[in-house]
Design a protein that fits this description.
A hairpin with a 2-residue loop joins β21 and β22. This protein is mainly beta. Strands 30, 31, 32, 33, 34 and 35 form a six-stranded mixed sheet that branches. Strands 24, 27, 28 and 29 form a four-stranded antiparallel sheet that branches. The chain has strands at about 25-30, 35-45, 50-55, 80, 85-90, 95, 115-125, 130-140, 145-155, 175-180, 185-190, 195, 200, 205, 220-230, 235-245, 250-255, 270-275, 285-290, 295-300, 300-305, 305, 310-315, 330, 335, 340, 340-350, 355-365, 370-380, 385-390, 395, 405-420, 425-445, 450-460, 460-470.
Length: about 475
């Protein structure tokens, strides 16, 4: 391991943190208030002959031995924060966890309820009251209400039972990913060509109740899948994944569309490459808005011919930035069956740092090449060298709010990022701050009620404000 003693720099590797995970991958993380980290995926430690679905790591990356060795069926999918606890996907369903990551018995195993049998798992969305919308392709047998057969958008109560007050939706394939937009509509992607008998693209949009939104149409070939969405304040959508536009053989990993689904031609279409496997499909799996751009993660190792091992930063128009991620990034490994290399995402922490996570051995940030890094690593945050400012505080109105609010600064700032921080110091949402702007209108739909701090980081200064969110 080559190391050099230098001062802390934002996004440089924190070599004091490393896990002992051997194989195979981590696909979701949630920082806890005590400095520990809840992770899920398919992980095995050296000397063990079984895979864990979820685990808890100490502040230095070591395994928390007091956390039960939950199997894969307990939860190995996305972790979503809700109130003082969490939800976690299980492949064919969803489990609810308490604030420490242990199973909440008040939310049943979905298969234990009547009418529902899990088959092909997909994604899920948690409503503010704890209800769950789940995608995939699952069997319903509710003859009283007429829901019998395969369904792909299914609603559940906040106790895990099938919600018999909702209209469940079907298609001729599997819906793998869903994402709620600020107006309550959902972007969907999967393997279908029709949705409730109507033709759809590989990415389509539905209303809050699941009816098809025919005003949104993306020109995609019947190939590929979207893995990540980010809806902008002007309703344009940044989409990461792997797909082909109609009339093109080029795989697109990151693009931007207008609110009607048409391609935004002002956004740069970079050339992503994945050169280390037989599949050679570069995929963008994660998008984190930050300052005047976006951090993107995935299975790529080159962008426009430049080395970017699973992580890169682009500006607001998609142009690849020369830093901070200009090292070789994550390294690969052979797990006995396949060669793995990639980052599933990057998550900010309450103390200003970042966790990257995925399926990799080793990480090179351009200064330090630490070959002992495994599946989860910690990067130094933007707070290195950031000072609080005396220019005043943020103005927030209406306050309290249950949906939309406007934030104003005492003077224009040259871009930045606004964080919403809960009472425990956890960042629950981040927004880009427009350059040369003194105000921005934002939405908090789906965020639990409570007292929050707003922290705007821009130009190496920090401006603070308070926000109260009411129940919807």
């Amino acid at each position: 391991m080559a190391m050099q003693a230098i001062g802390q720099v934002p996004f440089d590797l924190d070599t004091s943190y490393r896990t002992v995970i051997d194989v195979q991958y981590v696909n979701s993380v949630q920082p806890l208030s005590d400095g520990k980290l809840l992770i899920s995926g398919r992980v095995r430690l050296p000397g063990e002959n079984f895979y864990r679905g979820s685990a808890r790591l100490l502040s230095d990356g070591e395994l928390d031995g007091s956390f039960p060795p939950f199997p894969l069926t307990t939860g190995n999918g996305e972790i979503v924060r809700w109130m003082d606890g969490y939800y976690v996907g299980t492949g064919g369903g969803v489990r609810r966890l308490d604030g420490t990551g242990l199973i909440d018995p008040t939310f049943i195993l979905m298969n234990d309820g009547p009418y529902f049998t899990s088959l092909q798992g997909g994604d899920y969305h948690v409503c503010p009251d704890g209800r769950v919308l789940m995608s995939g392709a699952h069997m319903l047998d509710d003859p009283i209400r007429g829901f019998q057969g395969l369904y792909s958008l299914i609603w559940f109560s906040n106790t895990g039972y099938l919600d018999t007050t909702r209209t469940h939706r079907f298609c001729n394939g599997v819906i793998y990913e869903i994402e709620e937009q600020p107006d309550g509509k959902f972007l969907c992607t999967g393997t279908m060509t029709t949705y409730e008998g109507q033709p759809v693209s590989r990415v389509f949009r539905v209303e809050a109740d699941g009816t098809l939104d025919t005003s949104f149409n993306m020109g995609l070939q019947p190939y590929g899948e979207a893995f990540e969405y980010h809806t902008l304040p002007d309703a344009r959508v940044l989409i990461g994944g792997a797909f082909r536009l109609n009339g093109s053989d080029q795989i697109q990993s990151l693009l931007r569309v207008h609110s009607d689904g048409s391609l935004d031609e002002s956004f740069t279409l970079n050339v992503f490459e994945e050169t280390y496997s037989n599949a050679q499909i570069p995929i963008v799996l994660g998008i984190l808005p930050l300052g005047n751009g976006y951090i993107i993660t995935g299975t790529f190792d080159k962008i426009n011919g430049q080395d970017r091992g699973g992580i890169a930063m682009v500006d607001l128009d998609g142009n690849l930035l020369p830093e901070p991620f200009n090292g070789l990034g994550c390294g690969g490994f052979q797990d006995g069956v396949t060669f793995r290399k990639g980052l599933a995402g990057i998550a900010p922490t309450a103390d200003g740092n970042f966790y990257i996570y995925g399926s990799y051995h080793g990480y090179d940030d351009g200064t330090t090449n630490d070959t002992t890094q495994r599946m989860v690593s910690r990067l130094y945050g933007l707070e290195v060298g950031v000072r609080q400012t005396g220019i005043g505080s943020l103005s927030v109105y209406p306050n309290p709010t249950s949906y939309a609010f406007t934030v104003s600064t005492p003077r224009p700032l040259q871009g930045g990022v606004l964080h919403l921080v809960d009472a425990a110091g956890r960042r629950v949402q981040s927004w880009n701050w427009p350059s040369d702007s003194v105000s921005s209108e934002l939405h908090v739909r789906g965020i639990p009620a409570g007292q929050y701090t707003l922290a705007l980081d821009a130009q190496h200064i920090r401006v603070l404000g308070k926000l109260s969110i009411l129940p919807e």
